[in-house]
Specification:
Blueprint: H1 9-20, H2 22-33, E1 37-42, H3 43-57, E2 61-69, E3 72-80, H4 85-89, E4 94-107, E5 110-122, H5 130-137, H6 140-152, E6 157-159, E7 165-169, H7 171-176, E8 184-192, E9 195-202, H8 207-213, E10 218-222
Antiparallel strand pairs: 1-9, 1-10, 2-3, 3-4, 4-5, 5-7, 6-7, 8-9
Length: 229
């Protein structure tokens, strides 16, 4: 008669599991992927910087404000369209615009924002605003303005093929502070009043970001693994 080994297959399997302790291995993997830094960008400071640098370079962009609200970035400004045939024909010189940018995902340290609630109107007060009417039928004004915005900072901003989404390249800021993008992985973006917040995992200290851009613009916080995001 065939004798079974003193330990059956289930006992052997249990011994192997205890030896490698898979729970600890899994726990270590989870801990390794948790975010250990929170990065806060002061949108008031960025807005002031945009006024100084961007508006001086823009030919048609007359005014621009970019602020953060709960869950979105709000952009509003004024744009000169008098050089375009249709605008000249309709005797429209300047238009106002307002747009909300909603973050939809983060990948490769790039944040994709979807454009929502984009509104355009004639700066000159009219009983019947033909600009609003045309903008609803033909959204070319939106594309025109978005292209102007991203062209001012091509290393930071870009349009997707859908033409109603904007990518924000955060690797640009890391490289400016001599931080390798390979050492940083951004997992989550959050928007609060006047704050753009990133949760990320970094294998190196991020103090050079605050040193380079200034503590008024960027603040870096170390977070514990127990902190709930």
């Amino acid at each position: 008669m065939l004798k079974l080994p003193s330990k059956n297959i289930f006992q052997i399997f249990d011994s192997v599991l205890k030896e490698i302790n898979p729970f600890q291995v899994l726990l270590g993997a989870v801990e390794e992927t948790k975010d250990n830094y929170r990065l806060e960008i002061n949108m008031k400071y960025i807005n002031e910087l945009m006024h100084i640098e961007v508006l001086e370079e823009a030919e048609s962009l007359l005014e621009l404000d970019i602020l953060a609200r709960e869950g979105k970035i709000v952009s509003r400004g004024e744009y000169y369209v008098g050089d375009y045939f249709l605008a000249d024909f309709l005797r429209v010189k300047e238009i106002g615009f307002n747009a909300d940018f909603i973050p939809i995902w983060v990948k490769g340290n790039q944040v994709r924002f979807r454009v929502e609630n984009f509104r355009v109107w004639n700066k000159a007060r009219k009983k019947f605003d033909i600009v609003k009417w045309i903008a609803k039928l033909f959204p070319y004004n939106r594309t025109l303005i978005l292209r102007e915005l991203v062209s001012l900072y091509p290393n930071i901003l870009s349009l997707t093929r859908l033409q109603n989404e904007v990518r924000l390249n955060l690797n640009y800021f890391l490289k400016k502070a001599n931080i390798s993008p390979e050492s940083v992985k951004i997992h989550k973006v959050k928007l609060e009043t006047n704050k753009l917040i990133f949760y990320l995992r970094s294998t190196i200290a991020l103090k050079p970001l605050a040193d380079f851009f200034g503590a008024d613009a960027i603040r870096v916080f170390s977070i514990s693994h127990s902190e709930s995001l």
